[in-house]
Amino acid sequence: MPPNLEQWHYPIGRYQTKEVFLAEEINASIAILKAFPSALKELLSQCSTEDLDQPYRPGGWTIKQLVHHLADSHMHSYMRCKYAFLEDTPTIKGYEERDWAEKSPDALNLAIDASLQILEGVHQRWTYFFEQLSAEDFEREYAHPERTENFPLKEVVCFYAWHAQHHFNHIKQYLKYKA
User: Fold this and answer.
1) Whole-angstrom Cα distance, residue 109 to residue 67?
2) I want to staple 138 with a disulfide (CB 3.0 to 4.6 A). Which of 40, 50, 84, 154 is the partner?
3) Using alpha carbons only, how large is the chain's radius of gyration in Å?
4) CA 86 to CA 155: how far, in whole Å?
């Protein structure tokens, strides 16, 4: 049976914010981020060129736009993490992910290979970076100009592990239910 609208939007459920992050959760999140580029590339090998130009869910972006979104989003997050580590609670620059995915010519037209290469490199650096942090370092945070709360690195790593799995499962769901 095809998913309902909530399942199409959140195939692994919505991200759950929390106050306490255990070291095991942080390490598991790093492992997810480390494995993600290879797993994504393997999953995408099941997609035809035509599949890449199809929405991954009703009313959603194309799979191609989704892959470019992942590269854009994870590049931004890696840089935000570096700022949080190197500066005292920096205010990061936000970006309109919808504009990046829907108006940028590279997201609309470029083959996914470049974004897969970006994800491979960014995740290699990002996970190495996270692996070097102490428990105290994971408390460092950044401020988002559109949010009231700051984001500690311990939450960022867990959120982006969820984000990777969230979009991975969008593609997996598409492949399962495509006509």
Assistant:
1) 12
2) 154
3) 16
4) 17
CATH topology of domain 23-177: Four Helix Bundle (Hemerythrin (Met), subunit A) (1.20.120)
Could you tell me the mean pLDDT of each successive run of 10 residues in the chain, 179 residues long? 85 92 97 98 97 93 97 97 98 92 93 98 98 98 92 97 98 91
Give residue 3's pLDDT.
Answer: 80
Structure tokens at 133: 């942090």
The full length of the chain comes to 179
Question: Using CA atoms, how far apart are residues 9 and 58, in angstroms rounded to an integer?
Answer: 9
Pairwise CA distance, residues 60 & 170, whole Å: 10
User: Which tokens in the block code for residue 83?
Assistant: 């700022």
What does the alpha-carbon distance between residue 56 and residue 60 come to, in Å, rounded to a whole number?
A: 6
